[in-house]
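Input (structure):
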C-alpha cells in the first residue's frame, strides 16, 4: 500500500511539473500588432493620389512615361484603373509595379478598394 501511495504521489507531482511548463517564445507572447488598414473612406485626392505620387510618379509622368502610362493626373490613373492594369500591377498579378518592390499591403488594399468603388475623382 505504501508503495502505491509513493508511486501515485510521484506520478501526480510529475504531471503537475510537466503541465506547468510551456514553450511560448517571447515573439509569440509579445507580437507586434500593426494598426488596421482602413479602406472604408478611400478617395482619389486624399488616399490614392499620395500613394501614386510616392510610388509611381518617378517613372510614370510626362511625355516619356514608363509604358506610356502617365499617372500624374486623375485621368491617367483612371484610364489604367478602368482597364484593370492598375490593380493587376500593384497586386503583382502581371508586370508588378513598382519595380522597386511591392508596396505594403495596406496601400495595395486602399488602391483596390478605390477601384472597386468606381475609381471616383473625389
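Output (sequence):
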Amino acid at each position: 500500500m505504501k508503495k502505491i501511495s509513493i508511486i501515485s504521489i510521484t506520478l501526480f507531482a510529475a504531471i503537475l511539473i510537466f503541465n506547468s511548463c510551456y514553450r511560448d517564445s517571447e515573439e509569440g507572447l509579445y507580437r507586434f500588432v500593426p494598426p488596421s488598414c482602413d479602406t472604408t473612406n478611400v478617395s482619389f485626392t486624399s488616399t490614392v493620389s499620395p500613394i501614386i505620387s510616392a510610388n509611381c510618379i518617378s517613372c510614370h509622368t510626362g511625355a516619356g512615361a514608363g509604358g506610356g502610362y502617365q499617372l500624374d493626373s486623375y485621368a491617367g490613373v483612371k484610364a489604367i484603373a478602368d482597364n484593370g492594369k492598375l490593380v493587376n500591377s500593384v497586386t503583382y498579378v502581371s508586370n508588378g509595379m513598382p519595380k522597386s518592390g511591392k508596396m505594403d499591403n495596406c496601400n495595395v488594399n486602399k488602391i483596390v478598394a478605390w477601384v472597386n468603388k468606381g475609381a471616383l475623382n473625389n
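Notes: Residues 44-116 form one domain. The two ends are 84 Å apart (CA to CA).
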